[in-house]
Recover the amino acids of this structure.
């Protein structure tokens, strides 16, 4: 049960000034417990990609559908903004806090504050590193290491385990960037003729991917075979730079990516991206199912992974008509 402590009251005035939030509510309170509407605070990373926009839309639309009051805070790519948002949610005494963490470290102090206030926390999309696993209830998202392995395995079959790879990483210190890199490396390291020759962060942004690719092209010219991007937006930015350099993406250079947004699948169907591994952003239903159980005092699985698929020229076009993001 949450605490209406003096701590929360003292925090209220300052914390509410620290972050801009708004509320989404519906008339049909389908998830209300004992006649009480459930209130959720969501600390989102920002709006850095089409994937993130789809993720936010899923959380907002599902909250509205279920009659959940959603207090939303855009972290604008900064962890300190997210931490301020979490403290505001604590001060507002919400029922559950959901965090999509920008990076995986530095969360323990504010998670302890939430625990002391009696407010359960769900970690969504990206994982966190904490010394005390009881600081949050569960993680809901994708298996980033599996995604990295899926990309590597596809590439190994495609190339016979050969190729010079340029890697465009996601946000430095984030769980998807760390896990997608580590799992990919673990697979390709079994093949001496396949190696990453350079790796830079594009921060999960399309313009970041274009800037990194431009720098790679200036440094290596055409002396590389593969571009591995940690997300589709960066891959699409890299394609722009590759085309401007007079190369044909998907033909002169193998392009592989992760996320599975519709625009990337269109690029796969057009032959500009060779392989995309999905990272499903539509987390709203699964997150709010967990919220309802937590509020009702029911147990939830510690980890719940989304099902992710792989798309290449054999199946991308067929998936496009039903693509939701």
């Amino acid at each position: 049960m949450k605490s209406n402590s003096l701590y929360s009251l003292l925090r209220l005035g300052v914390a509410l000034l620290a972050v801009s939030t708004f509320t989404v509510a519906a008339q049909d309170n389908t998830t209300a417990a004992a006649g009480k509407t459930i209130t959720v605070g969501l600390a989102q990373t920002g709006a850095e990609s089409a994937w993130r926009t789809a993720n936010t839309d899923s959380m907002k639309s599902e909250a509205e559908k279920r009659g959940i009051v959603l207090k939303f805070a855009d972290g604008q790519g900064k962890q300190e903004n997210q931490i301020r948002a979490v403290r505001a949610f604590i001060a507002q005494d919400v029922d559950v806090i959901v965090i999509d963490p920008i990076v995986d470290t530095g969360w323990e102090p504010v998670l302890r504050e939430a625990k002391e206030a009696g407010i359960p926390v769900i970690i969504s999309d990206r994982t966190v590193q904490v010394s005390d696993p009881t600081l949050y209830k569960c993680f809901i998202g994708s298996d980033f290491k599996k995604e990295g392995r899926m990309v590597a395995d596809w590439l190994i079959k495609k190339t016979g385990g050969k190729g010079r790879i340029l890697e465009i990483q996601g946000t430095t210190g984030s769980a998807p960037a760390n896990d997608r890199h580590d799992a990919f490396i673990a697979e390709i390291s079994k093949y001496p003729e396949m190696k990453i020759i350079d790796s830079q962060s594009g921060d999960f942004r399309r313009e970041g991917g274009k800037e990194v690719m431009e720098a790679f092209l200036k440094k290596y010219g055409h002396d590389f075979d593969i571009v591995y991007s940690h997300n589709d937006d960066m891959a699409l930015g890299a394609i722009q730079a590759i085309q401007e350099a007079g190369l044909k993406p998907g033909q002169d250079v193998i392009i592989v990516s992760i996320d599975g947004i519709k625009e990337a699948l269109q690029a796969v169907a057009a032959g500009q991206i060779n392989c995309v591994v999905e990272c499903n952003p539509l987390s709203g239903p699964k997150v709010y199912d967990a919220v309802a159980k937590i509020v009702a005092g029911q147990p939830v699985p510690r980890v719940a992974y989304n099902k992710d698929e792989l798309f290449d020229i054999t199946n991308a076009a067929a998936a496009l008509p039903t693509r939701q993001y």
Remarks:
- The mean pLDDT is 91.
